[in-house]
Amino acid sequence: MKQNDIKRLSLYLLFAPFALWITLLIVLPHLGMLYISLREKVAPRVYEFGFANYINFFNEPIYWNTLLRTGSMSLLVTVLALLLGFPIAYYIAKIAGHRTRGALFLMCLIPLWVSDLIRAFGWILLLRETGVISSGLQWAGLINAPIEFLYNDATVIVGLVYTVILFMIVPLVSTLDGMDDSMIEAGYNLGGNGPTVLRRIIIPYAMPGIVSGCIVVFMLTAGSYLTPILLGGKNSSWFTEQIYDQFITRYNWESGAAFGFVLLAFTSLVIWIGLKLSGQTLNSTVARS
Amino acid sequence: MAIKPNTAFLTAYQFYILAFFVFLAAPLVAAGMFAFNDSLFPSLPWRGFTLDWFFNDTEPKLGMFHDRRLLRGLYYSFVIASFVSLLSVFVGTCNAFLFVRCNFPAKDFFYIMMVLPLVIPGVILGISILLLASNVANSAESAFSLDLRFLRPGIILVVLGQFSFITTITSLVIIARLKKFDESMEEAAYNLGASRVRVLRTITLPFLFPAMAAAGIVAFLVSFENFNTTLFLVGSEAPLTITMYDRMVKVGSTPVLNAVSFFLMVGSAALALVSVLVQRDKPQT
Q: How far is A188 from chain B (nearest CA, A)?
């Protein structure tokens, strides 16, 4: 066999698993979902093509309110995760000594390997009426009746920030790690003070990491299911809960599929806007880390 | 040190770091700690140390190692995670060679396609695969009266669903390693007359092995803890996270769930440590 034929053959052999994976498990299922979301049930087992499922979504305020609520809370979680995570990442990448650095980074990763379910369970044990914090405060005499910390928006946000902050810290550490310390020193030598150096040098340099962290965090938050349900209870009204409801409780697959697409379109739109605003591309951010 | 802040600022900064790690640890400590409390409820007050929630064999304090449903969940999780891990490392390695070594049209586009599954919400992945599988199964049944059992919710669908996004993770890990490979090593071997297969087996794959092992462990852990995608694809063979969730919703929180949590945390910490150790580069000589 000629060298070229071997090259071609190995390309085909390597491309086959990739093509099977992406086509069968990603592209076809989503096309199928699109198809199902576009059919209307006119009678049992009789369907017509149409946009009724999407029109239903926009006609029912409770649906799009839930979506907007999910979107805005996810944005808030993303911003909080960035604000809280940036100092941590900066400390790990630039300030901590060589030894502490690895240890701190590993400690950051530990919760990543613990299931969402266990993390939410831990928060429930801490925050519920008979939980550790409530009984601790009573024991200390600061309050005289048990307090329920669960089932409100603040708790959901804390729980979500907790769940996703690692996905912010990891890309930030890896970009800040690649930054030369002399750039920061040069900034100081040229007379910049702390905030100026941060704003003019560090943040622009860390931008790919920031954007990549924000994208992953936003997607994970908007698509999360367990944390809002367990920490927010019945009133959390998270959009994924609506999807689950349509599918499993009402057995209305057509409208569930439409809801799924709405979520996908909405999150993609937000990320597209984010990429345009920050002047980055998907390739320069998520794919890199 | 990069920035030379004053001492008060640095102290406050370090205090913040400390507070952050307390925040990170708090729920995990709470979830683990109550596994050892000798009480029927996972809450304070502390009633003394016990291992009953692991080993006791009678109700009401049935320990996790005697709880058949939890054990079955653990077993199914283990089976699913092993399959997902093997499959995704295999496809991930192929993808690494494909994207690092081969040139083909629209490579950037396909690369984005490869990364995409990571940013699709897990719930959507789950339902889209469920819909496709059910539709195919339904059509096969009505058209050819074929009963395609494997397309109904069950272990195979769960494996496929998790595999669909975990492969992105394994591919990225292995690609990163393959990019660091010095191709002159392969050329040297070719010049010495080695065949392609031999070079692959004795040079390239040993170099990639740490990344493949680490990717496999990561895939195993992510599969083990996955909930969102699994929820829609699960049949009667529920993996551990689904069993635990069921228990939590139907029975309420009991310390046996803390025992399971503790067990899982120790297990994943150990595996994560192994994955860090195998990936560490040996000192260059």
A: 8
Let me know if residue A27 belongs to a domain: yes
A227 and A121 housed in the same domain = yes
In a domain, A176, yes or no: yes
Q: Which of residues 152-211 of B touch A (CB under 8 A)?
A: 160-161, 163-164, 167, 196
Q: Which domain holds residue A200?
A: 53-278
Q: What is the pLDDT of residues B153-187, one digit of tens each?
A: 888 899 999 999 999 989 988 988 888 888 888 88
CA distances from B178 to A83, A221, B90, B92, B94 (A): 34, 32, 14, 11, 11
Q: Which one of A92, A118, A244, A248 makes the best mutation probe of the B interface by having the most chain B beta carbons within 10 Å? A: A118
State pLDDT tens for residues A33-71.
888 888 877 767 677 777 878 888 888 888 888 889 899
Which tens digit of pLDDT belongs to each residue from B47-80?
A: 777 777 777 777 777 777 777 888 888 899 999 9
> Quick check: A77 pLDDT over 90?
yes
CATH number for the domain including A185? 1.10.3720.10
Q: Are B136 and B240 in contact (CB under 8 A)?
A: no
B151 touches chain A (CB under 8 A): no
Pair A200, A63 in one domain? yes
Taking the CA of residue A28 as centre, how many other CA atoms within 13 Å lie in the half-sphere pointing to its CB?
16
Does any domain span residue A43? no
**Domain co-membership, A30 together with A58:** no
What does the pLDDT look like over B182-220, one tens digit per residue? 888 888 888 888 787 888 888 888 888 888 888 898 899
What chain B holds in terms of domains, given with CATH numbers, is 79-237 (1.10.3720.10)
Residues A114-124 as b/e (b if ≥16 CB within 10 A, e otherwise) read bbbbbbbbbbb
Q: What ipTM did this prediction achieve?
A: 0.81
- Residues of chain A found within 8 Å of residue B2, distances taken between Cβ atoms: 94-95, 181, 184-185
Contact between B167 and B88 under an 8 Å Cβ cutoff? The reply is yes
Which residue from A minimizes the CA distance to B90? A17
